[in-house]
């Protein structure tokens, strides 16, 4: 990694007064500063804002899925979505979704995230030189910077695994191996950053985009879970459960509201309700905010650009990131409203779709029972799409042959919000992206209970998530409704797992059930799916099932094969290894299998 590249990023610092919620991330960047400029009360805050700004990725490539938090690509590689668009558009992504990544096809994310780490390290390096701060103020700034650094390193660790820990702002050629040539393990340093953050962040924050103590607690538990899943922390599951119990019992949002599930599932994707009681830590976005720029907008989630300019996909990318049939089929339920956990073994019938049909061709949507979360997550033909009207199918899909018949829904704002929460005719809206929401915390707790042997408690937590969609089912704001007011738009049904159900009869069954339930609740958001499959040790089995089922419909993945090693880890970009040379010898060792 070239030092000149890293130093250029310091120009992300910004001036301006800091308001509440999204405002402190909506300031225009200015030029680079010397240490003397930064080592003041105002300067160190602007340096910290520079570190926050990296949460949003960069406009040039963020929309294609390798941005922070890498949401779209993790969902694509986890089988929930297709690349979409055309085979020649962003062709490097073809290698990713076929699990044929090479050392030249996945480099942008690596460099970007280390640049983000550099901005955090700049804050931490300069902070001791700022004499205007009280001890408490300095500790809070350090805690925020270390929270952000822990987050960026967490993303790097999940994607690339064998990476160096860099906390200097002057030396970057640091090896990722020890003196014996073994890869170093930076999990302890990542955990230490969140440990400091959870002990020094305040309970509430005036700027809601800043993490509080409870966001740090939840993220700390997440790190413990990942470490334990890799066999790196023997008692990690038990410790994580203790932390999660504390978060569920006592945790509050940055504005002091007790954590709880939103009344309605889709409120989590409503721009007018963001930073609500379910938001633990979210990337803050703003649009049409007076800056005359789209740089602060939601760049992570892109829907399908429609040929019809009035479609919900208008201007939001050339058909990238489209839900797969495999993902949609997770939402099929039996007569009791419970999912087919074996996917196609009990019920081989996919959800009816209009794949290959024109919008002018006749089509009737699925009449079999479905989990109501499907139509808040996926746009499908014959079902109302927010306030845009009935989805007509192919006319709203940019490239139906490559993309399939669906468009994603969680990242869209309403039609009547155009010009308010998005600049007219632009692609980027003001909708936040949840990195951790409270439903995620509850499902982590369910998983931990199952892993320590408390299967009944695990069932209780899963039912708590499911019951949100089961209750108030008659409310017109709860399930997607027909436009004419005649009731639900599909045959929605959702039930709770009764005591003694086979899904929780043993630990293996319970964990498979929880993995399935995580996808129903969290699919197409946050980039959880690919890494969940790896953590549960089911990536090779389920991703090859996905390929087998989906490849006859989408030629882009035809003939693909997923192998746990090396496909669970991305290669370190070759350009980065080349730039790590010292006396003609690279200090970075490539990941196994590349």
Automatic annotation (TrEMBL):
Record-linked InterPro entries: SusD-like_N (IPR033985), SusD_RagB_dom (IPR012944), TPR-like_helical_dom_sf (IPR011990)
Location in or out of the cell: Cell outer membrane
**What family does the entry list?**
Belongs to the SusD family.
Q: Species name for this entry?
A: Parapedobacter defluvii
Key word NADP present: no
| Record keywords | Cell outer membrane, Membrane, Signal
Region feature Disordered, mapped onto this chain? 351-371
Q: What Pfam families does the entry give?
A: SusD-like_3 (PF14322), SusD_RagB (PF07980)
Signal peptide (residue range): none
Give start and end of each RagB/SusD domain: 277-594
UniProt KW GTP-binding keyword: no
What are the top taxonomic ranks of the organism?
A: Bacteria, Pseudomonadati, Bacteroidota, Sphingobacteriia, Sphingobacteriales
Q: Where is the SusD-like N-terminal domain?
A: 71-223
Gene3D superfamilies given for it? Answer: 1.25.40.390
Its protein name is Glycan metabolism protein RagB
Lineage top rank: taxon: Bacteria
